[in-house]
Amino acid sequence: MAAGSALSLIAAAICLVVALAVLAPAASGDGATLESVPDLVKAMYINIESFPCVRLLNLSGEIGCSNPGSEKIIAPIVRFRKGSDRLVQPSTVLLPLDQMSDFFLRVSNDPELLRKVSGVLIESSGVNNNLQGLSPDRKFPQDAFAPYSNHTHDWNPAGSGIMWNRYDFPVFLLSEESTQTLGKVSDKNEKTGNGYKPNVAEFDLVMQTTKAQTHDSASCLKEHSCLPLGGHSVWASLPPIKNGSTEHQKPIILAVASQDSASFFRDRSIGSDSPISGLIALLTAVDALSHIHDLINLKKQLVFAVFNGEAWGYLGSRKFLQQLDEGADSVNGINRLMIEQVLEIGSVGKAVTGEYPSFYAHAAGNSPASKKILDALQSASKSLGSDNVKVTQAASSNPGVPPSSLMSFIRKNMSTSGVVLEDFDFHFSNRFYHSHLDNPANINSSSIAAAAALAARSLYILASADSVVDLMTLNTIKVNVSLVEELIGCLLTCNPGLSCGLVKSLISPSSSSCPSHYVGVFLDDPSGTQFPSYADDTSRFVWNFLADRTSTSAGNKSSCTGKCGDEGEVCIGAEVEGGGRCVVSTTRYVPAYSTRVKFEDNAWHVLPANSSDPMGVVDPVWTESFWDIIGLRVYAVQDSTYDWFILLAGLSITAASYCAVHVGRTYILKVVKRD
Q1: Per residue in 258-270, pLDDT tens?
Q2: Where in or outside the cell (predicted)?
């Protein structure tokens, strides 16, 4: 009896020991208590803060990134190093930032490497100055729209063109914190002795166009798996003009800037130098001019326009010109034939390379009107005196104006008189054009302030026409340097970002995340232009800012939350708590989307090319795919050896349990027989 009892105890002990051996690894860790399923998920998975490259389409195909099918992608994480860059299995590539351009160019031309790339994670660490340049755009951005035949000029020497290729694997830009996390994870994978990589990345970047098998803009719009790129441009006049007034209308001096940028990564389209420095300079110039009281007596009318969608086929400027031709309500009060001169403020954030800021004026042709703009810039430069703001006419060896909204005006009318003010002559001074690295560290606030002062005084001189310029008034036009700094903080930084006091005094921002100036997709029915159900934060801020700075007080002092009662009045700050106020201002939204698409029967349709619209003929018609959820997370997967161990341990427990039951049963039967 004693021997049988001992045998039973031994069998039970074996079961307990084996069970503990199996469960011990699962119980080990940091001692955290798992009290719920969410706690377990949090312990198993690391959600990675990152910014995706998404799928865009045009009339001829696709660009950007997507999972190759409708399923998630799971692959081990491997750091990609120069000199040891061979992949032995399908992998998630952790890529240093300085290798980004070379890697994607190689993937596009190396089928063997492509087969081994399951996904790519780009490290965000690295100081801008350590890179000679990183621009995923082409060397001549949007060359198809150029109003001249020389398309080989390298305006953007750093351009690699990688953002215009199609990648059938997910790509994410990591945040600084996530870069450190993934660095540690990849180090763990490298230290495994048997070649097994236990830490994997799981990508959820499934695009609706991939699932629907719609691989161009025409088919995806037809199947409702995408939307056209677009948004809202804004224009305003100073002083206000009466709607529909053509009687005694003055010639127009049009000052323009762009508000959108592009990037390999959708939500990191910051565009500090190109083009937001120009936008900030324009807004600051408007602010400076708004303090002059005799503008109504000037011989020409000042009109300011901020175009959206310029990085994707000059959507805003082309739609603006089309609306002018059609006499649409969005441009009521101005006439294209009355636009006499155009001054565009381009990239102006890097003009301070020496002791003083130095700008370049790129003129459209040699017309007398264009020469007057150049003369006005020179006169404004001289009037700034000790500020030593220099402006030089760009080299005649350039093929024409650089990539700019002015190209739309020239293609519409080759006799257009205009000048683009830039911080470069032959080539972009911005080494990070259309890159996520075109951030606030890439610009100089004093350069933007100098451009604003130069533009404001030039516009006053041009609006004075051939009359004698009031030098006393000219010298009172001074820019608010603090406003420049404030706008940089609001439009380009994460803190305060669009939560800054200036923005929140005019609108209620829809997002508290870091500013990004990607154009987005056009969500509205275009017929409701002046009261759009959706306009992005930047467009709404620009509208309210321009309406405020170009306004005169209205007779009705009551608060408003939308429309004002009298004609010519608009409601500023309608979104803020307590309501806005009605002012007299000619400030309008203009839809910004391709002239080749039309919203009809509650859907978008591609229109055939029209020979009377030369820019429409070459318009790619950009669209963005729908998606459900975009996600990236990391977790550990046990080696198959461990799985075999678990199986064998389970079998051992089963066998030991069987033995214990059999021995116990035999013992009990013997005891019963004796009794």
Answers
A1: 999 999 999 999 9
A2: Membrane
Query: CB atoms < 10 A from the CB of 668, how many?
Result: 12
**Phi (first) and psi of residue 589, to 5 degrees:** -85, 145
- In single-letter form, the type of residue at position 167 comes to Y
Q: What is the mean pLDDT of residues 315-341?
A: 94
User: What's the whole-model pTM score?
Assistant: 0.90
Distance separating alpha carbons of residues 607 and 622, to the nearest angstrom? 13
Q: What pLDDT score does 353 carry?
A: 77
Outline where 238-314 has alpha helix (H).
277-289
Strand ranges, E, within 549-663: 552-553, 559-560, 569-572, 580-584, 587-593, 597-600, 603-606, 623-625, 631-636
What residues have CB less than 8 Å from 417, skipping those under 6 apart? Answer: 340, 341, 342, 364, 365, 367, 368, 369, 370, 372, 373
CA distance 667 to 645: 32
Amino acid letter at 253?
Answer: I
299 sits in which H/E element: none
Strands 559-560 and 91-95: unpaired
The neighbour count for residue 23, using CB atoms within 10 Å, is 11
**Range 30-48 average pLDDT:** 69
Rounded-to-integer distance, Cα 629 and Cα 72, Å: 11
Q: pLDDT digits over 605-642, tens only?
A: 999 998 888 899 999 999 999 999 999 999 988 655 65
**365 phi/psi in degrees, rounded to 5:** 75, -170
Rounded CA separation 410/287 (Å): 28
Percent of the chain with pLDDT over 90: 70
